[in-house]
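To: structure desk
From: M.T.
Subject: fold request, one chain
Message: Could you run this one when you get a chance? Sequence is below, nothing fancy, just the single chain.
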Amino acid sequence: MHDEQGLSALIGSVYDAALDPSVWTDALPDATSFVGGCAAALFAKSAVGKTGGIFYDYGTDPYFRDLYFNEYIKLDPSTTGQFFAEVDEPIATADFIPYDEFLETRFYQEWARPQHLVDFVSAVLDKSVTTAAMFGVFRHERDGVVDDQARRRMRLIVPHIRRAVLISRLIDVKAAETAMLSDLLEAISTGMFLVDGSARIVHANAAGHVMLDAGDILRAVGGRLVATAAEVDASLHDIFAAAADGDAAVGIKGIAVPLSPHASAPYVAHILPLTSGERRHTGSTYAAVAALFVRKAALEAPSPPEVIAKSYALTPTELRVLLAIVEVGGVPEVAVALGIAETTVKTHLGRLFAKTNTGRQADLVKLVAGFSSPLAN
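Reply: Done. Structure tokens follow.
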């Protein structure tokens, strides 16, 4: 697809999917083509239990998809490392493990190679202490390994996919089937507002009115939506004005906007343009250019593995080996569990000893125990 036209159409489909999940069946093939690959998926993973599942996918083989989540997710070198990636930042296999080492793993030999897959470029959309929601595109042999162009194209679309996913999480899928967005607004507990280009409130749901009455983060002044923090208010008004010109004008602004500088009220807003795609029907009906979704952000502490990795500057592979030593024992057992050679385990073990100033595997177990409650379910 042509870059500009294709990107614009793709973004429109992604935003439509925020209110109508069935649209992902159209958006994912276009995303796969735009980035360059053979398949794509919206999925979730748990770093603790090494489990996960797919929400929506395109082009994946059902047999290998089930095999992955039933067995090979535990052997995937990316499973641990993906939790340390920055939100929206594209990451590929070589970011977790040297590529030549990856080719020697059981994961590649038994799961990826039979499908002629050579790489996977993904990005974290949202994460908590234990789980991460992600989007990724698989690379076939004919596509080659992930290159700079694939990463650049991922950066262009991932923020929009993230916005759609975050908003869709706030909406009851059954309620989203209604034809009237105002009915949908009343059906959910998240504060939601329809506004025009000048921030005039054309509709607010019950939760939104509660927020306005409290006046802690948002209030109505002369019928217009005003944020209590001046800098936030200016930002919101700029986004509403841009929304009148469509998705492209809004760009990646308006995703997880902090509404209050105070930690005691950690509210964030997500803004969905209503002047493009299927959303324009709702926008024109209510003379609204955007829908504002407000939710309370959870203040999550870093997970114990993340704290350990940052404390000792461990690479994702070193962290995998460390956790495997705690969970399964010695070098031979770790090699089997991770699907890598014993010599590779010994190499990483030596680096772990050096970085943590320890000399025995038992010392590593004590070190991990000192950081946390259990690391595995």
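Reply (cont.): The CA atoms of residues 182 and 216 lie 24 Å apart. Let me know if you need anything else for the meeting.
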